[in-house]
Amino acid sequence: MESSSELVAFPLLLTPIESNYRACTIPYRFPSDNPRKATPTELSWIDLFLNSIPSFRKRAESDGTVADANVKAEKFAQRYSEILEDLKKDPESHGGPPDCILLCRLREQVLRELGFRDIFKKVKDEENAKAISLFENVVHLNDAIEDESKRLENLVRGIFAGNIFDLGSAQLAEVFSKDGMSFLASCQNLVPRPWVIDDLDSFKLKWTRKSWKKVIIFVDNSGADIILGILPFARELLRCGSQVVLAANDLPSINDVTYPELIEIIAKLKDENGQLVGVDTSNLLIANSGNDLPVIDLTRISQELAYLASDADLVILEGMGRGIETNLYAQFKCDSLKIGMVKHPEVAQFLGGRLYDCVFKYNEVLS
């Protein structure tokens, strides 16, 4: 399942890791809860994963790389439903009690055991092609904003707008299958500030006062998310003199961009001089994070990324799975930014915000 080499802890997590880090933001249960009885929170999250099954089955059915895809897709739906129903009856079954990492891992396991490697490949390729054709235009619109603080806010809004392309959310998968997503319209239509967690003003202040020497960005989805959201922001960091490391998944999971896909995307976006619309990319690195899920446990990353990250001074976790559901409260030895859109009602309720609200959580570490 994992990449062949051993996974290690992210070197910038606050130590001791055992007492400072847990890859789960929303507690599904407390020590006082009955271990044999599912909690209301566990039940509502299991239902959320149950509700995602039809859209996953539909993608699996149309996977041309798998023989008898429709039969196997039906098997996936059956098996995964059974596992989730088991967890409702006995939360300690299937390696439980459940959290979002286990629920994601079990879904991937069932898919992979049936031979499904990448059921979202077709839609990822289509969305990447669309976003690549819009990249230059989005970059020029940003470059035209002379005020540095306004340009930064526009880039951040672009990250949120891009992050809407998430087929792991049942509601968004529905919207997407109807009419696709217009990136620029999404930028205009973000919920108004202040967002549910909104540290943008202090981040802007920091941005104008200093530049980070090395930035690690854990990226999320394919299409508009990586190409129109993250890459214009990364390009701006490069322009300010930072080295940027984009950490992408080892294996496919939902519509998240993978390491090989990201290398291909960047190659297509660079001009003949190896530049991203006039910005030198010699300080841009792509790393394999070693991860194979749409969420991330930072005690299990690739050695390559651990090596590259050891001297970074800003860590960015982007997207709901990595930035909100698993690592919102993760503490680092350096500055950190968690940025993502709230796309599950359960997350909105936990944070006390609105559905499609935005999280921009910036923590500065005073050296």
TrEMBL record:
Its cofactor is Ni(2+); Mn(2+). GO terms for cellular component: cytosol; nucleus. InterPro entries: ARMT-1-like_metal-bd_sf (IPR036075), ARMT1-like_metal-bd (IPR002791), At2g17340 (IPR016949), At2g17340_3_helix_bundle (IPR035073), Type_II_PanK (IPR004567). Pfam families: ARMT1-like_dom (PF01937). GO terms for molecular function: ATP binding; hydrolase activity; metal ion binding; pantothenate kinase activity. Keywords: Hydrolase, Manganese, Metal-binding, Nickel. Residues 52-359 form the Damage-control phosphatase ARMT1-like metal-binding domain. One of its GO terms (biological process) is coenzyme A biosynthetic process. It comes from the Eukaryota. PANTHER family: 4'-PHOSPHOPANTETHEINE PHOSPHATASE, PANTOTHENATE KINASE. This is Damage-control phosphatase ARMT1-like metal-binding domain-containing protein. It comes from Vitis rotundifolia.
